[in-house]
């Protein structure tokens, strides 16, 4: 569901009013029944909800639909309970964060029990999550904690690029002391794993960015390239991974877009997100690598400024649903 006061419920319903997702998968909503009922009416969509729960005895996997096979306009929903008034659109609140967190927890439990093949998430608000008592910077960290996955990574996919982040939500001033050889090596290994297991490229060429302008220019603008990044690349190469760099970020992503690299590793959040959003704004997908199931998400936030106005674009969510279905199908075959 994402944050109930953001655009998550709107883009979910708009996406599922299209036949496209149903050609790939059988979507199940995890969210507040009353909120989605209200949104269906407000948006005047030809959809209706069918409540299901853990005792209904069926799985959402292909070929295992409930008796009678639900019609296309019927969306199964696992209801997330909430006492009190629903959060208002565009209003940050602990209640909104709590609802979003409970939906994540419930969906994760279903996925871990084998009842789901993949999860696609709507945007959450990190402050709302914190106010609700969940000490996580975002979905990636939350899902890692719920599943006990010690090593996970955030890969952005879109515009012909696949970019893994060595660090995620971190202040730029903290980068020099928080960026370690082990973190970069982990990001390279996760990139290799994703390319091998999901994208059919076991020998993928992986370009690794520098941190500083001109990748440090031999120490003139910083020594992280030689001291921290290059050792990680060397260790990855010794294990058989085709990693190369560190390269200046201002040319690396262009080179990847031209086909020189199958995937890249960026050192920090905006270094990765700027090229992705330049090439595929509103169509990129956030993919979590390292979980025991497939998880994708949108490339944008809660957009409180337009929540409740009916103008949100579901494009990124449609892409996230398609990628989740494709990757889950590959995992089932393998």
Description of the molecule:
The chain has helices spanning 8-16, 33-43, 94-112, 126-131, 139-147, 175-178, 181-197, 224-238, 249-257, 269-280, 315-333; strands at 29-31, 48-51, 74-79, 118-121, 153-158, 161-165, 205-209, 242-247, 263-266, 285-289, 294-298. The chain is of the alpha/beta class and 334 residues long. It folds into two domains: 1-150, 3-Layer(aba) Sandwich (Isopropylmalate Dehydrogenase), CATH 3.40.718.10; 153-289, Isopropylmalate Dehydrogenase (3-Layer(aba) Sandwich), CATH 3.40.718. α1 (8-16) crosses α2 (33-43) and α7 (181-197) packs across α8 (224-238). The longest helix is centred in the N-terminal third of the chain and has 19 residues, at 94-112. The protein is globular and about 60 Å long.
CATH class of the largest domain: Alpha Beta
CATH superfamily of the largest domain: Isopropylmalate Dehydrogenase
Termini separation:
29 Å
Helix vs. strand class: alpha/beta
How much of the residues is beta strand, in percent? 15-25%
Question: Briefly, what is this?
Answer:
Helices cover 39% and strands 16% of the residues.
Descriptive terms for the model:
334 residues; Isopropylmalate Dehydrogenase; 8-stranded mixed β-sheet
């Amino acid at each position: 569901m994402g944050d109930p006061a953001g655009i998550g419920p709107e883009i979910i319903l708009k996406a599922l009013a299209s036949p496209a997702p149903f050609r790939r998968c059988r979507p199940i909503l995890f969210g507040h029944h009353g909120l989605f009922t209200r949104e269906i009416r407000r948006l005047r969509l030809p959809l209706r909800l069918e409540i299901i729960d853990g005792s209904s005895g069926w799985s959402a996997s292909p070929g295992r639909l409930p008796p009678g096979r639900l019609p296309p306009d019927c969306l199964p929903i696992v209801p997330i309970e909430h006492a009190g008034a629903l959060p208002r659109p565009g209003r940050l609140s602990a209640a909104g964060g709590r609802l979003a967190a409970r939906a994540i927890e419930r969906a994760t439990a279903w996925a871990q029990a084998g009842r789901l093949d993949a999860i696609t998430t709507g945007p959450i608000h990190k402050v709302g999550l914190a106010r609700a008592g969940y000490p996580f910077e975002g979905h990636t960290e939350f899902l890692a904690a719920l599943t006990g996955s010690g090593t996970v990574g955030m890969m952005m996919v879109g515009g012909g690029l696949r970019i893994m982040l060595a660090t995620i939500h971190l202040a730029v001033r903290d980068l020099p002391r928080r960026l370690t050889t082990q973190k970069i090596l982990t990001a390279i290994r996760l990139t290799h794993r994703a390319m091998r297991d999901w994208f059919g490229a076991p020998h993928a060429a992986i370009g690794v960015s520098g941190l500083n302008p001109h990748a440090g220019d031999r120490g003139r603008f910083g020594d992280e390239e030689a001291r921290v990044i290059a050792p990680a690349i060397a260790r990855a190469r010794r294990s058989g991974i085709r990693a190369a760099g560190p390269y200046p970020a201002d040319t690396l992503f262009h080179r990847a877009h031209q086909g020189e690299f199958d995937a890249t590793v960026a050192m920090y959040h905006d270094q990765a997100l700027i090229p992705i959003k330049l090439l595929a704004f509103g169509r990129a997908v956030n993919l979590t690598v390292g979980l025991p199931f497939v998880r994708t998400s949108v490339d944008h936030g809660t957009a409180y400024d337009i929540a409740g106005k009916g103008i949100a674009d579901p494009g990124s969510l449609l892409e996230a649903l398609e990628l989740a279905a494709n990757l889950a199908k590959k995992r089932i075959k393998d």
